[in-house]
Amino acid sequence: MQLFKNSNIDFLGKQKLFYVVSAVLLAIGIGSWITKGSLKYGIDFTGGANVTVRFASQPPIDKIRAAVAAKLPGELSVQDVSGTSEVIIGTGLKSDKELQAARGLIVEALQGAFGATGGKLDLNNATVQSLADRLREPLQRASVPVSEQELMETAQRIMEFKNSAPRSGVMTALDDLRGVQGVSPTFLNVVKQECGLGSFSIRGAEVIGPKIGAEMRNKAVLATLYALGGMLIYIAFRFEWIYGLAAVLAVFHDVIITLGLFSLFDKEISLNVIAALLTLVGYSMNDTIVVFDRIREHLKLSRKDSFAKVVNDSINQTLSRTVLTSGLTFIAALSLLLFGGPVLNGFSFALVAGILVGTYSSIFIASPILVFWFNRAEKGRRVKTSESVKR
């Protein structure tokens, strides 16, 4: 399928206009960035607390976010762990004391949203001590002969059974405890009277300090720079160094504009967004290389044509492929942005913005840089030739 047959659009004739467009976009984005003092970084980069929660079935992310946000105001993120029934709830908390208080609120919020245990102790979120305290008097009333040490040891074995595979913290039936050492039929009946099973379990909670967040931010920047550097070396080896420089400048232009849009629309920069930016670096670079490859082919066949004409013809001949590829990718990214929910919002926004800017830069930024350089080099050669003739 070819959308543009024998097109002859003078792209390079409009390069000054698009230089102005790029300058305006860069100025707006960087201006917003400077005005706000910094980009808006997520918990991954600023530090905070992560609480890992495992559910009995696939967790509904939006419902979890709404329930926790009602109990725990402030910065909040909820991300599912691919391939599991776990989610990581991130908050802006900075200390272990705050984390312990927040953990109780998170359990309370999730119990309210996903069904409480009717006043019974939630065994999936109990500790050895809380289980022993809950069973001590009921066991005495039921005349179950168990010493304090035996009670603690049995409670410990119950917790170990709950946390072992394949349950991994979430039991779905109390009858599964029949095989646990020390759990007699009478003991199990008391457990059933005093305990219930929630549909989730808090699997872990940790505080990420600002120092670690800053290190992750620096590593994200380095990862992007290393990617650009590697591509510069590759393109310089495959083509010429100026091709690599033009491609890297175009991609750098794409990343800065995309980050400027994040600042302008007050969106968070998270690890997901960094993943999207690295994806865009590769996508935009690939789009640019397609044009460069066609330019190289034409230079071998059209030696009499000016370099500007060769570049213009190459862009026109790859235009159909560029529009089809970018258009289909853009539709997929836009669908993620519209229907992917809050978790994928930053990722999909970066893709949508980056695809548009990346496609634009391959035509109106990278290629004109090449033309500018070759025209300048040609002018320099002419001056040298003229000087040598005069001598």
Helix content: 55-70%
Tally of helical runs: 12
Determine and state the CATH class of the largest domain.
Mainly Alpha
Spatial strand arrangement across the major sheet: 3-4-2-7
Instruction: Profile the largest sheet.
Output: 4 strands, antiparallel
**CATH-defined architecture of the largest domain:** Up-down Bundle
SSE pattern: HEHEHEEHEHHHEEHHEHHH
Detailed description of the structure:
The chain has 391 residues and is of the alpha/beta class. It folds into two domains: 12-41 and 209-390, Up-down Bundle (Multidrug efflux transporter AcrB transmembrane fold), CATH 1.20.1640.10; 48-206, no CATH class. Helices cover 66% and strands 9% of the residues. The protein has helices at 15-35, 43-46, 61-71, 96-114, 128-141, 148-163, 185-194, 210-238, 241-264, 271-301, 307-339, 345-390; strands at 40-41, 48-55, 76-80, 86-91, 121-122, 195-196, 200-208, 268-269. The strands form three sheets. Strands 3-4-2-7 form a four-stranded antiparallel beta sheet. A two-stranded parallel sheet has the order 1-8. The protein has a two-stranded parallel sheet with strand order 5-6. Strand 3 and strand 4 form a beta hairpin. Helix 10 (271-301) runs antiparallel to helix 11 (307-339), helix 10 runs parallel beside helix 12 (345-390) and helix 11 (307-339) packs antiparallel against helix 12. The chain is elongated, with a radius of gyration of 31 Å. The protein starts with 14 loop residues before the first helix and ends with a helix. The model has no long low-confidence stretch (mean pLDDT 83).
